[in-house]
């Protein structure tokens, strides 16, 4: 099969190239015939390239991720940065968040592992507060808060907003429910108003609220779910996995709905105000990532009565902070 193996040193490079090509030219039909079968090979005479050698798509076949607004976990795309998004967790450290019950929550229970903000629980720690709640350092009026979460078996957590704070205690307010819908007893007994993405204990999400993996014990599918809380004006929206699953208005009607469910809420509950946002430690395991927030422009507030034309819209602004009388300038006395 192979001939001319004697090669003179003077033309060694040219001869080597020739024999390598001759070897491959002779060997490829044999390999193709053995794989495809002699009949198939004789029919078309084309040797398909191996899958690993299939040419890749040109570099310009798809737009860069930054132009599409797609970002890696715990990062912002160029488009998101231009829109004013800010990270609260970058996969390595908390940004603008602190502990509520613990001065150093990352050494008390919360752990940063593989780009995730984890709250692991040993058996002896179940149903006990270890790391405590996490809360934003800044307050927000109108905002769009997005996050991802992952639960374990029977776990429960939540995201609270429009909160009333007490030193060292879990903040009270509205809660985007995060729970194991399959195994947690509170969720099973509470029905729709205790399901993931509900306004916890008050309003259930719609039928389109679907977890990517309903049972945390299953190893199939994506265990991470996307959450979103949108507060603008008196309207609030809960989103889950790209779907708006709940919308409601703040005010007396919401307080009445909470009271009808047997919840003891104060007169300020469910009202619009500056607020921090809290991630809850409720004694079970949970994990978060992709925590990011965008401050929104306050929406116009229009008040109209029947038969009276609506006034010119005025921009709703956060309430002004109380004035400290000790910082007021002293009056000058004019001599008579």
Description:
- The protein is globular and about 45 Å long.
- The model is unreliable at 1-10, 15-20, 29-68, 301-306 and 308-316 (pLDDT under 50).
- The chain has two domains: 9-50; 65-295, Exo-inulinase, domain 1 (Jelly Rolls, Sandwich), CATH 2.60.120.
- The chain has 336 residues and is an alpha+beta fold.
- It has helices at residues 12-36, 38-44, 65-68, 78-83, 105-108, 185-190, 252-260; strands at residues 86-87, 97-99, 111-113, 116-119, 134-136, 143-151, 156-164, 172-179, 225-232, 235-240, 243-249, 278-279, 286-295, 300-301, 314-315.
Indicate the proportion of strand residues. Answer: 15-25%
Distance between the termini: 125 Å
Low-confidence segments, ≥5 residues, pLDDT <50?
1-10, 15-20, 29-68, 301-306, 308-316
The major sheet is characterized as: 8 strands, antiparallel
Provide tags for this entry.
single chain, 336 residues, alpha+beta, Jelly Rolls, 2 domains, eight-stranded antiparallel β-sheet, five-stranded antiparallel β-sheet, 7 helices, 18% helix, globular, disordered N terminus
């Amino acid at each position: 099969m192979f001939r001319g193996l004697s090669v003179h040193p003077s033309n060694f490079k040219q001869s080597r190239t020739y024999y390598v090509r001759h070897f491959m030219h002779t060997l490829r039909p044999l390999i193709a015939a053995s794989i495809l079968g002699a009949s198939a090979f004789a029919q078309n005479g084309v040797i398909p390239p191996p899958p690993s050698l299939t040419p890749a798509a040109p570099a310009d076949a798809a737009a860069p991720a930054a132009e599409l607004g797609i970002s890696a976990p715990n990062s912002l795309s160029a488009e998101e940065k231009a829109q004013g998004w800010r990270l609260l967790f970058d996969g390595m450290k908390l940004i603008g968040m602190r502990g509520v019950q613990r001065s150093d929550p990352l050494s008390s229970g919360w752990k940063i592992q593989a780009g995730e903000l984890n709250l692991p629980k040993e058996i002896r720690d179940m149903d006990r507060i270890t790391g405590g709640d996490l809360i934003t350092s800044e307050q927000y009026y109108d905002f769009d808060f997005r996050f991802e979460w992952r639960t374990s078996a029977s776990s429960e957590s939540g995201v609270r907003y429009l909160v009333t704070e007490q030193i060292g205690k879990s903040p009270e307010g509205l809660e985007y429910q995060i729970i194991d819908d399959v195994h947690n007893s509170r969720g099973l007994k509470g029905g729709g108003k205790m399901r993931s993405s509900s306004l916890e204990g008050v309003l259930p999400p719609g039928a389109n609220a679907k977890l990517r993996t309903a049972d945390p014990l299953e190893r199939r599918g994506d265990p991470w779910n996307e959450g979103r809380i949108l507060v603008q004006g008196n309207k609030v929206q809960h989103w889950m996995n790209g779907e708006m699953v709940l919308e409601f208005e703040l005010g007396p009607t919401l307080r009445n709905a909470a009271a009808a469910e047997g919840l003891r809420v104060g007169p300020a509950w469910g009202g619009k105000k500056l607020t921090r946002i809290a991630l809850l430690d409720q004694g079970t395991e949970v994990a978060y990532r992709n925590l990011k927030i965008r401050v929104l422009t306050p929406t116009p507030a229009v008040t109209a009565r029947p038969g009276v034309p609506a006034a010119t819209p005025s921009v709703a602004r956060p309430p002004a902070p109380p004035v400290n009388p000790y910082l007021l300038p002293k009056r000058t006395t004019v001599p008579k």
